[in-house]
Every structure is written in C-alpha cells, then in structure tokens.
Design goal:
mainly alpha; Arc Repressor Mutant, subunit A; Tetracycline Repressor, domain 2; 2 domains; elongated; Tet_transcr_reg_TetR-rel_C_sf; DNA-binding; Transcriptional regulator, TetR family; transcription cis-regulatory region binding
Length: 209
C-alpha cells in the first residue's frame, strides 16, 4: 500500500536553496562594507574583511566591483537613493494638494536626514561636496525639489519667475546651515529646520506657517 505525501510535507522535505538572490547578496555586501567604513575608515578596511563580514567568497566581491573605490561609487549612489526615498516618503505623507506642507516637510526631512547620515556622506563622497558643479547626486535632489516648487506654482500657491534659482537657494541654504550645526557638534536639527522653513516661505512670498 502506497502512502501519499501531502503537499505541505513535500515542500518541507525539499532542500532550501543554498544561494541567495543576487540583489540580496549585493545588498548584504554593501551593508557590510558600509559598516566597516564607518567604524574603522576606508583605508583601514580590507576586501577580505568586507567579504568575511558579509559571509561571501572574495570572488563574489569581484563579481560586482573591481576595487574598494568602485564600491565607494556604488555606495554613493545607494546613499543618494536612500536619501531621496526618505524625502519622497515624507512628502507623500502630506495632503496631496497642500504644497506648503509638502515643501516644509521636504526641508525638515532634508535637514534631519543630512544630520543623521553626514558621516556616511563624507565617506562615500570624499572628493566633492554638495555645492560642487557637475555633482549628479546634487542634481537628483535638486530635480526633486524643483518638482515641488513647479507643482506649487501650477496650483497657484506661489509665483516664481525662476523656480530653478529658488530651488538652488533652498538646497544651498539647507545644506550650508546644516553643516554649521554639524560643525558646532549639535545633532538636533529641529530648530534649524523650522528656521529654514520660515525663511523659505518668506522667500516665496508666503506668511510664516
């Protein structure tokens, strides 16, 4: 007499795959490198330490990257992607038709996100800063901010002759003022963020919120 095996038992009996999806393996590799770079610096970190922390073979590292510098470039792109996602989530939490709230939230979140991650920022972008010309990361953030300003303009919330110029002024103000707070050894950006929000609203011709 044959005994039927239930579908559940069949699934349980099947061996689990030994390899992780490529995107998971890559994320774990980059996360391991990021942790080591933050704790002991880029120069002091070896590729052997990175792969040991990520629990992968050294060949896996070279499958994705040619060197630590190559990985730094990818970590910089990852940093900007996470930064933009944080801003997008903050803006999306505001009412869709409240452009003042969206812009204010963008500024507040930008200040706090920069305060939270400036050590990583300085590691992955060692050779340029947020005001440098030809900075693709800056351009991506500016494009997001410009979209807010143009959206508010179309909705009649403000009237700007040159939205691009205003976006650059807000961007520079946010990062420049936040750098001053970092240099002073502070980590609470709430008062600074509120001051920048009110200054930007006045620049747009709006009363303080």
């Amino acid at each position: 007499m044959s005994v039927k095996t239930s579908p559940v038992a069949k699934r349980a009996a099947q061996p689990r795959p030994r390899t992780k999806p490529a995107e998971v393996r890559l994320e774990e590799l980059m996360a391991a490198a990021q942790d080591l770079f933050l704790s002991q610096g880029v120069e002091a970190t070896t590729i052997s330490e990175i792969v040991e922390r990520a629990e992968v073979a050294k060949g896996t590292f070279y499958h994705y990257f040619q060197s630590k510098n190559d990985m730094l470039v990818a970590l910089g792109q990852r940093y900007t992607q996470h930064y933009l996602q944080r801003l997008e989530q903050a803006v999306a939490a505001c009412p869709e038709d409240d452009w003042v709230a969206q812009l204010s939230s963008w500024i507040r979140t930008s200040v706090q996100a920069y305060l939270d991650t400036y050590r990583l920022h300085d590691i992955v972008y060692p050779n340029h800063h947020h005001h440098d010309r030809g900075n693709p990361e800056k351009n991506a953030i500016l494009e997001q901010l410009l979209g807010l300003l143009e959206g508010g303009q179309r909705a009649g919330c403000w009237s700007l002759a040159q939205p691009g110029v205003i976006a650059s002024l807000i961007y520079a103000g946010v990062h420049g003022a936040t750098d001053d707070v970092i240099a002073a050894g502070e980590d609470d950006g709430r008062a600074l963020a509120e001051a920048i929000v009110q200054a930007c609203l006045r620049m747009l011709g709006l009363p303080p919120s």
